[in-house]
Amino acid sequence: MSQDSQHGKWTISSSDDDDDEALPPSRTATSGSRQPTESSHSSYRSATPSPPVEVKPEPAKPPVSSLAVGSEARQSAAKNQLNPVKYETSPSLAGKRKKVASDSTGWALSDSDEDDGEVKGKSLSDLPKKAPPNPKTKKPKVESERPPSPHGRLYYIDEPDDFFESRLPPLNDTYRFYLNKVTGLEKKYNNGALHIRDILSPLFGTLKESVQFNYCFDIAWMVKQYPSEFRDRPVLIVHGDKREAKARLIQQAQPFPHVRFCQAKLDIAFGTHHTKMMLLWYEEGFRVIILTSNLIRADWYQKTQGMWMSPLFPRLPKESRASAGESPTFFKRDLLEYLASYRAPELEEWIQRIKEHDLSETRVYLVGSTPGRYVGSDMERWGHLRLRKLLYEHTNPIPGEERWPVIGQFSSIGSMGLDKSKWLAGEFQRTLTTLGKSSLRPDPPMHLLYPSVENVRTSLEGYPAGGSLPYSIQTAQKQLWLHSYFHRWKAEATGRSHAMPHIKTYMRASQDYSQLAWFLVTSANLSKAAWGALEKNNTQMMVRSYELGVLYLPSAFGMKTFSVDKNPFPVSASFSGFPVPFDLPPTSYTTKDQPWIWNIPYSQAPDTHGNIWVPS
């Protein structure tokens, strides 16, 4: 079956499975392998003779468990990257040579400047044919060594010596919102950004124990990110894996006796444990990090990610009241309530520790999702109704707010229904447009940011970046109406236009994009599973997944609105505006742009590594 639209002609399966929240059983990453985040599997094929960075020895075949690494999209990416297929020279590219970027990153970039982004999917029969192997050529035998990633041994560029912080870096302490460092960027764009090794370093405290809540793990890689002096300190892993996937995760941790596990209960079909949070207990106090990155190297390498890092929370005096240490945003109460929702004995000692600390400096609101069906006042505890309640209670109407656009930016998309009234406009948009207790229900513009095919093709990672953008053809072809909302990923101000986003942000901007009414960074993508959906004539809220984010409201900072920082890098110690991670105003798709869809081939133009994308 094929379908034409303004976003190209797609060949689609007759599968009726349109819920891309349904995931394969495993989300664990075998140590040393590189996984496309929260998504893909495709044949990632190379094009034209490889530049030096692509030359690699024949990789040893990984164990099966390394390919069962999460959603089908991630698995497809891993398979394709193991056997990259080069783009074959076509007449349109004949005579064009590859050039090595002059920023010393080592990436080979195409000389072609006239590619217009119209990279259409082709049937498998149209793909370049691989020559049969020569039976006389013996492959070197590799017993136990495995490449550091499915891209091959030389995929990752080593970070320069000064990439990681040796002293406390200049940070924006007003908002405490930070982007991850990105390998290969001009140095100033990492000044004030953080890597996981920075977060866990002694610069921020003398670590005693930690908890890692996440979706995808590479345990060996994670352990190496802790500094040597903290590497044997107890770590609790909170995950959502079941059955075989759980067994593989536990097997990963066998060499590390200090690593323990807590399995999150997922009792509703298609739910995931998608929350990403660190709890860090120090000799000096306690800290919370709420972030968007999985615990695998790919997520901390060349993707745009974000986090909120709390202040260092000091210990309360003994015999303090139960209500002591609360913040004006009730962050302590809400964090304890979120942890209690797991109903996990393994978290009880952490709940007690948090009660013993002073969280009063916190100026953000917690917005979480936990699986369940909620009625009455409980409907407003989680998901988008929690966000709606906070916007209703702690913001004020703005003159001309009908012209203040709502912006959503995400890395995955669920099934929205046959038209916008089913959930997006009928339910979710009402939440995002809430400002105070006004009875006015304006219908402002809604801009949704999701990478185009051309964004992915020209990214630092090339097509494998699409392994972390698991929008499927089965879902996309049923909601073509949604694509009219889409805008490209463009982040020149933060230097991250070519670092594909795995961050998720939502905000309300002024008509001239100089002010924000609010800002949210979260793990929640654009899906009903993440945000919840009303049921039973709007008397019940059903949430499938665990998610977590923090909401910035101007009132908590003594402001009416946040001013937008147009040049957030390099970070300075003086106060500046809010560092939005992408450029405002958003850039609409052109008529030739298509949203990235992971499970169709892209073979008409090579990516920045000279490869094509062929889903398996």
UniProtKB/TrEMBL annotation:
<keyword id="KW-0378">Hydrolase</keyword>
<keyword id="KW-0227">DNA damage</keyword>
<keyword id="KW-0597">Phosphoprotein</keyword>
<feature type="active site" description="Proton donor/acceptor">
    <location>
        <position position="502"/>
    </location>
</feature>
<dbReference type="GO" id="GO:0003697">
    <property type="term" value="F:single-stranded DNA binding"/>
</dbReference>
<dbReference type="GO" id="GO:0004527">
    <property type="term" value="F:exonuclease activity"/>
</dbReference>
<dbReference type="GO" id="GO:0000012">
    <property type="term" value="P:single strand break repair"/>
</dbReference>
<comment type="subunit">
    <text>Monomer.</text>
</comment>
<keyword id="KW-0963">Cytoplasm</keyword>
<keyword id="KW-0539">Nucleus</keyword>
<dbReference type="GO" id="GO:0017005">
    <property type="term" value="F:3'-tyrosyl-DNA phosphodiesterase activity"/>
</dbReference>
<keyword id="KW-0540">Nuclease</keyword>
<keyword id="KW-0234">DNA repair</keyword>
<comment type="similarity">
    <text>Belongs to the tyrosyl-DNA phosphodiesterase family.</text>
</comment>
<keyword id="KW-0269">Exonuclease</keyword>
<feature type="binding site">
    <location>
        <position position="276"/>
    </location>
    <ligand>
        <name>substrate</name>
    </ligand>
</feature>
<feature type="region of interest" description="Disordered">
    <location>
        <begin position="1"/>
        <end position="154"/>
    </location>
</feature>
<dbReference type="InterPro" id="IPR010347">
    <property type="entry name" value="Tdp1"/>
</dbReference>
<feature type="compositionally biased region" description="Polar residues">
    <location>
        <begin position="73"/>
        <end position="83"/>
    </location>
</feature>
<dbReference type="GO" id="GO:0005634">
    <property type="term" value="C:nucleus"/>
</dbReference>
<comment type="function">
    <text>DNA repair enzyme that can remove a variety of covalent adducts from DNA through hydrolysis of a 3'-phosphodiester bond, giving rise to DNA with a free 3' phosphate. Catalyzes the hydrolysis of dead-end complexes between DNA and the topoisomerase I active site tyrosine residue. Hydrolyzes 3'-phosphoglycolates on protruding 3' ends on DNA double-strand breaks due to DNA damage by radiation and free radicals. Acts on blunt-ended double-strand DNA breaks and on single-stranded DNA.</text>
</comment>
<dbReference type="GO" id="GO:0005737">
    <property type="term" value="C:cytoplasm"/>
</dbReference>
<feature type="active site" description="Nucleophile">
    <location>
        <position position="274"/>
    </location>
</feature>
<feature type="binding site">
    <location>
        <position position="504"/>
    </location>
    <ligand>
        <name>substrate</name>
    </ligand>
</feature>
<feature type="compositionally biased region" description="Polar residues">
    <location>
        <begin position="27"/>
        <end position="48"/>
    </location>
</feature>
<feature type="site" description="Interaction with DNA">
    <location>
        <position position="527"/>
    </location>
</feature>
<dbReference type="GO" id="GO:0003690">
    <property type="term" value="F:double-stranded DNA binding"/>
</dbReference>
<dbReference type="Pfam" id="PF06087">
    <property type="entry name" value="Tyr-DNA_phospho"/>
</dbReference>
<protein>
    <recommendedName>
        <fullName>Tyrosyl-DNA phosphodiesterase 1</fullName>
    </recommendedName>
</protein>
<feature type="compositionally biased region" description="Basic and acidic residues">
    <location>
        <begin position="118"/>
        <end position="129"/>
    </location>
</feature>
<keyword id="KW-0677">Repeat</keyword>
